[in-house]
Amino acid sequence: MTPAAAGPGPASPEFSLDGSASHGLGGKARELSYRWNRRGCAAQAVHWGESVSITMNRFVLAAFVVLWICSVRVAHAQTTVQVMETYPAGPAVELAHDQNFYLRLAYTVDQPTRIWAEPYFRGAPARAGSNPSRSYDGVGEALGWFFLMDADAQADEVRIRAGDGSPGGTHEVARYPVRVVQGGGAAAGTVDPPEWVTRLSALDAQAQRDAEESNDTPLSGSDVVLFGGFMLLMLALGILGFLAPAWGLWRWRGGWRLAAAVPAVLMAFVVLRIVVGTSSDPSSHNLWPFEVLIAGAESIGVMLVLVIARRVWPERSV
Question: 49, 252 in Cβ contact below 8 A?
Fold first, then answer.
């Protein structure tokens, strides 16, 4: 008996990429679906990486802005000075020979500040000598004064400046219009000055004596150790302020390297500003060690923030 012709056998199994058996069009559909899912995951990963990159760019921009604000010392503390009264009094004054013009000043400052009263005539400094200044802090009264150099000298206003004495750290805070000329007599100089002139002059003289005595006092052993430790700390912060961002520039890639350039630029800017400033005015950066100390601390702080941020955002995603 002739055997019946064998009909079509069962379809041979097909295997999808994940190893599971499939048959026919159903298996093909699952395979295509798996491939599309992989492509979708890849596209999503790329999109996530772009989002992280954009976030890093914004972070770097924000860091630049914050460091610029920190490095610009124009954002100085609020200082107000007002002229309460003068001696001799009046809108127009004639001084006797060798007589001073005094101003009673009320000040409000929130950090140690020096205050100067400087006479001007027609917008230019008058031919006059004016007061030095001790350091003031908080709220109180200060004494400003000046004298004219010769009989032809005169003033039409007094400009009040306050700050640390450097060009960048000293600013005009008030103006007082008054006409001051010098006469030839001495009668005005024989009048007793008001109480506030005597009192504030005595305070200035006492502050000067205290400063001279403190300068003459020898340093104790603990003072030497404290000063030496402070200088070593300042030197270490300055060096680390340069080394930390340099290490980041050498080890990191991509946006992290750009972020590490922020404190490096800050340190370079501070040093360059000190060099340029002292070349034109040697007294412009008398406190340059503190400037380096502050900049070094800011640089180290930014690098610590970046090190922590790199643990949150893996390096491969940037």
Answer: no
pLDDT in tens, 22-80: 445 455 555 555 554 555 554 554 455 555 455 555 655 666 565 555 544 444 447 89
Contacts of 127 (CB under 8 A, 6+ apart): 148, 149, 150, 152, 153
Write the CA distances from 50 to 47, 58, 77, 289, integer angstroms.
Answer: 5, 12, 42, 42
Which has the minimum average pLDDT: 62-71, 122-131, 292-301?
A: 62-71
Query: By C-alpha distance, which of 144, 131, 156 is closest to 87?
Result: 144
Does position 274 have pLDDT exceeding 60, yes or no? Answer: yes
Is residue 84 within 8 Å of 105, Cβ to Cβ?
yes
Find, among 182, 195, 186, the residue nearest to 151 by Cα.
Answer: 182
**Separation between Cα atoms, residue 57 and residue 259, nearest integer Å:** 8
Model pTM? 0.49
3-class SS shares of the chain: helix, strand, coil, % to 5: 50, 25, 25
Q: Is residue 118 within 8 Å of residue 81, measured between CB atoms?
A: no
Cβ contact 171:76 at 8 Å? yes
Q: Say which residue, 3 or 102, is predicted with more confidence.
A: 102
CB atoms within 10 A of CB 78: 9
C-beta of residue 149 within 8 angstroms of C-beta of residue 127: yes
DSSP alpha helix (H) spans, 217-253: 221-251
